[in-house]
Structure formats: C-alpha cells, structure tokens
Amino acid sequence: MKAEIGVEILKKIVENIDEGIHFIDKSGITRLYNHKMAEIENISRESIIGKRFSPNIFKSLSEMDSTLLRVLKENVAIKDNIQKYLNKSGKEIITINSTIPIEINGEIIGALEIAKDMTSIKSLSDEVIKLQKINENFDKDTVFNENKQTNKKLYEFKDIIGESSQIKKAIYMAKKASENDAAVLIYGETGTGKELLSQSIHYNSGRKNGPFLAINCAALPETLFEAILFGTTKGSFTGAIDKAGLFEQANGGTLLLDEINSISPQMQAKLLRALQEKVIRRIGGTKDISVDVRVISTTNENPKDIIKSGKMRLDLYYRLNVIFLEIPPLRERTEDVLLLTNKFIENYNMKLDKNIKGISEDVKKIFTKYLWPGNIRELDNVIYSSMIMADENILNKNSLNMYWDDELLKKDEETQDTYINLVGLKEEIEGINGSLEDRVSKIEENYIRNAIEAYPNNLSKAAAFLGISRQALQYKMKKYNILKETLNFGC
C-alpha cells in the first residue's frame, strides 16, 4: 500500500513540475514523457510514449545531436547543456538539459533527461541590457542630492533627514558598517529609505570610487534575474551576446540586492556560491570569473519571519547578515515627520516653480497623528501631489490631495488601550491558561485577529496598526490559520 502511495506521489510530482522529463529505456523506447516536455516540444504524449525515440522527429536534430542517445550509449552524464532546436511545429526552442544514465545494480536501464525551457529569455534579452543600467534609475525612497557633473543621484548620510533617536542609531550603525567590507542586511518597511542607507554606506566606504549597482530581486522572473546577475555568453540563447552581469560590473564596488527575501531557492543556491567562492559563471559560459564585490541586501519582511517561513536558506542568511541594520518606520519617528515635510516642500518648490510656504496647523496635526503605512515614500507622494494641485501658498486640509482613514489617526497610547478594551482583548487574555509560550502566542493571535477585524478591507492598515510589515502579517495569519474569508477580509 505504501509503495502504491509513493508511486502516485511521484506521478503527481512529475506531471506538475516546471521542467520537462523524458526517460527512455535501454532499448531506446520512451517510457516517461511528462506534460511539460510535450508542451516544450509540441508533441502529443500518445505519439511518443511506448515508441522508440528518434531525434529525426525534429527537423533540426540528428542522432548525433541527441543527448539521450549519447548518454545511453556512453554511460556518462551531460549536465547543464544548452540545446537549440526546432520543435515539432518548427518553432525554435532553447533548453538547458541535464541528462543522466539510470543504473540498477550496476546495469544501465535507461537515460533520463530533465529540460528547463529557456525560450522565453529570447523576448526578454533586450531587457537584460536595459536593466543592467538599473543603478542609474533608482527608486526615490527619500530626499536626495544630485551630482551636477554626472547628473546621477547619489545618496549620502547627510541626506538622511531626522532627529529621532531611532534614526540616529541606524545612521550611527551604518557609518560603522561603512568602515569595512562585511555584508550588510537592512530591514525596513517599504518606503523607509533602505536604498538611501545602502548608498550612504557605499559612498562613505573605501569602495566609494567603485561602482554602486542595484537590482530589485522581486521585479524580475528567475531566468532574467540570473542573466542580469551573472551575465550571458554569446550563443547561449537566441540574441544572446557576451555581456557582463551585475557582479562583474560591480567589481571593486558594491551590489545592492533589494527585496532579497523574494528570490527562489534555485537562485539562492547560485548566489550563495558566488558569495562563498567569490566567483561567478555567465549563462552558457564554461569558465569561472573572480569578482570582488561587497553585497548589501535589503528586505521589507522581518528576517525572523523569513527564516521561520523557510523562504531563505540558513547558510545564505548567515552569509548576508554579517551586519544587521533596521530602519524604523515613520510612525515611530513622529518628530521627523515635519522635518521631512519641510524638506520635500523645499525640493518641490524648485521642481514645480512654486512658492509654498508650509502646511497649516490642522495639517500638522494630521501628519503627526497619521500612521503612514507607506512611510517616507507616502509622505513624499502626498506633498508632491498636493503641491501640484495647490492654488494657495499654504497646504491646508482642503488642498491636501490625500485620503486617510480616521482610525489611522488614533495612534496615541490611550486611544489604543481604549480600542483594545472595546474589542475585548484584555478580557480574553485574562482567561488564558498554559505555559508562557502558549500565553504569548494566544495574545499575539488575538491581537492580530482584532486588528484585522478593525480594518476588514485593508491589510496594510492592519499591519501598520500592529507595527509590522504587510508580509509579516500575512505570515502570522497563516501561522494562526486566520483565513481572510472568515474575517470578510477584502484585500
């Protein structure tokens, strides 16, 4: 019975993975040909399973080109082989194949080929070149200076606006980090200024005369991400040219990996090798290339949650997290809100050729009480859009081009205590029995449930109320089996 279950599980895996699988026995007869391989080669499974395999079904292949037949004949594995040929419909496809002989008790019983479809890279190859210039188009996380000679945005520590103890601590630790080449992991919610801090570290370090390059790991598909990071070799896929990846381009400088928590396990393994051995290999290349790069990584998800959820390999995490920096959210630096507001007004007065003097008293009250779930980026956007629409020289509540929820203005401690009492959380906590860990978990679960019930249609606001990131809240909802449907949760 167990063997039958194992076979069924194996069948499900083979039919649902994103790689093509083709197995021929020692007589050359196809015994296994999954849906993905049929999709790649545009051949019906019925026309090939149970029949002797011949590469002649493809006009562009001969028996000498067939890795399956070669492996079966020579009993030697062929790994990471790039193959270009025309499928049954005449469309050119590019795959990376690993073909291995299968032995039982020393006897070859067949050959297995695992193929990864790389054809989609063809349409994306032009993007490789564009995105390799990503360092010239940084997202605007906060205030910046502009280098007049290069017309390139450069962030330095002096550009970080703030007098709060939290931001001063972050700057102090970042300055210490800039004194060496150790890997840095920066944690902060979206819009807190992680890239600003990363560039400040670079331009305050011994590598300041070297390049500073950045890539948003969440913005690219895995295949394109690998090409940008490690480069390409001419002929490795249609349209491919000899092109250095970001690791090579950043040699002697710093590479920023933004949203590192979003990369796939396969890419994590390749990235770990590059960090450990300080060598990379271009896609389709055959030689290792030494690189001297400092890596700074950022994440908008709490590292503890990343590890607990299994999103990141521990060995990679420890490799990246030599120095840990945390940027506080704007709601924890209330005293900095008005400082940033004045700086943004000053910047946009120049950009928009306006003469806005400041904000009214009622807007000051709103700004200092609002929780700013989008952090500095949200404040920046509010000021920018409001100044575009403003007819007067003072931004008042009526001219404010902003939507806010009154509940998000209730952030003082007394209001929160009142809110907790209203939803009955304290009464529930008093009745909890069990170990300290059980009590803490129950308190956390109840607090999360009540926050979600308070904001049934906005996950970002619920996360902001709890003081955690949206991703962390999603993880905890899964941990405590809090379903969106049961809470009438809309987004």
Descriptive report:
With 491 residues, the protein is α/β, with parallel strands linked by helices. Helix content is 41%, strand content 17%. The chain contains 19 helices and 18 strands. The protein has helices at residues 2-16, 35-41, 67-74, 120-131, 165-177, 194-203, 222-230, 246-249, 265-277, 303-308, 314-320, 334-352, 361-369, 375-389, 413-422, 425-430, 436-454, 459-466, 470-479; strands at 20-25, 30-33, 78-86, 92-104, 107-117, 145-147, 152-154, 184-187, 212-216, 231-232, 243-244, 254-258, 279-280, 289-290, 294-299, 323-326, 358-359, 394-395. A five-stranded antiparallel β-sheet has the order 2-1-5-4-3. It has a five-stranded parallel β-sheet with strand order 9-12-15-8-16. Strands 6-7 form a two-stranded antiparallel sheet. Strand 3 (78-86) and strand 4 (92-104) form a beta hairpin. Helix 4 (120-131) packs across helix 7, helix 5 (165-177) packs across helix 6 and helix 12 (334-352) crosses helix 13. The longest helix is centred in the C-terminal third of the chain and has 19 residues, at 334-352. It is elongated and about 85 Å long. Residues 125-152, 410-427 and 485-491 have low confidence and may be disordered.
